[in-house]
Records
---
Amino acid sequence: MAKKSPKKKINYDVGLYEHKSINNLILLGIYFTQMENEKCTFEKVVGKCFSYFPKMFSFSQYRNWPDSRKLDRPLRELREKRLIT
């Protein structure tokens, strides 16, 4: 069986994304998930958003852990605006 090559993790400078809206960062997380041909589940989007934008999607007290609550309401708003399904 052939080994999969490890994917490079992109570390974005906090200054590039800290002033962007949560909704736009979530849309990017969804885009990154789809570009890797992965099923776009809530867990995958949380993981991608935290992986690429950790300062915005982590717990305030525990910066090494993703906070899925930061995606819940914005995802509902994106659905209401019909930007995602």
---
Amino acid sequence: MKRAGTFSSTTDPAASCASAPSGVALTLGLCFAIALLEGLDLQSVGVAAPRMAREFGLSVSQMGLAFSAGTFGLLPGAMFGGRLADRIGRKRVLVISAALFGLLSIMTALVSDFHTLVLVRVLTGIGLGGALPNLIALSSEAVEPHRRGTAVSVMYCGIPFGGVIASVIGVMSAGDADWRHIFYVGGVGPLLLVPLLMLFLRDSSAFAKASRDGRLKPAPIGNVLFAESRGPSTVQIWVSYFCTLIVLYFLLNWLPSLMAARGLSRGEVGTVQIFFNIGGGLGTLFIGMLMDRIRQSVVVAGMYVGIIASLAGLAVSPGFGALVAAAFFAGTFVVGGQSVLYALSAAFYPTAMRGTGVGAAVAVGRIGSVVGPLAAGALLAMGRSSSTVIGASIPVTVIAAAAALMLLRRPRAED
């Protein structure tokens, strides 16, 4: 008797590669590697920001725009990347996206003025945005449905661990002009991985089966998102993504600058950032595995309580040690929580529509990732303290929690 998620010897081996145990490991390993480099690039501007600001003479509001430039590109990248994946396959779109953000990360290191920096970061964001919905789809479709939380968490933990690498490079690059190193590393890595993706990565067996069955004729986007009782689920996914990503990207981009404003040295700021990302990686794995093992509503509720508590800790912690601990738990719950949302969204759309559905959710969430850094920059420009700015994100977290808990009451897709 054939187990779910496997194929007999008569199945096309290229299509079934991702279903065998070794194929699952290879798929998740390659997706993790791309996520690692995506995480490095996403946090590179935040880590390099203080030195970039000195070199280019940036004001606080300009720094906020530089932070948000990449996320402006993430929105259309995610939307079109997910939609295109349902037409030509997840692998092809992922290869194109990785090559794009690799080349443009290198170009970031070569910019010489603020306006070019903003343009290049927008284009980089398009590549980064196109990659993520395909990483989610590939990892969730590589395993049986009851293991999706673990699979997506294994992939997504690469993003915070990539942030660890970005922080370490930032600490090791002592000179003011050395901020470019982080973008060289973030650019060369994806370009080296592109040949490996082309040779070894396969689209999922679920996608291959949908293709053979003729179910890949793209439905109108409105039908994908709102037909067959998917409307409430889609709205709840969007609200939870939007609000959680406001908090996440505010921390990803502004945490180093906020810690520096509280009097921490460059090394101490780097340590806080490193522990934030270590917490994010460990939290992603731990919370993702819990989602597959215990009642999901308990995990989600506990996750958002943890976000609120850790944000409060960042806002009021009096010393360096307490800030490090608060940053660790903020990473654990905020980054880990976002990986849970990615796994959940994949469960509410059938295979033939998953790229479009997840891509739309990621795109809407990216609006939050633009709003978060811009709002923080505006508050700081108004003279608000770092504690006030951090505390302002707590009500947003409550809204995200309510939407996510309501989502869990909705029916899932059958495939």
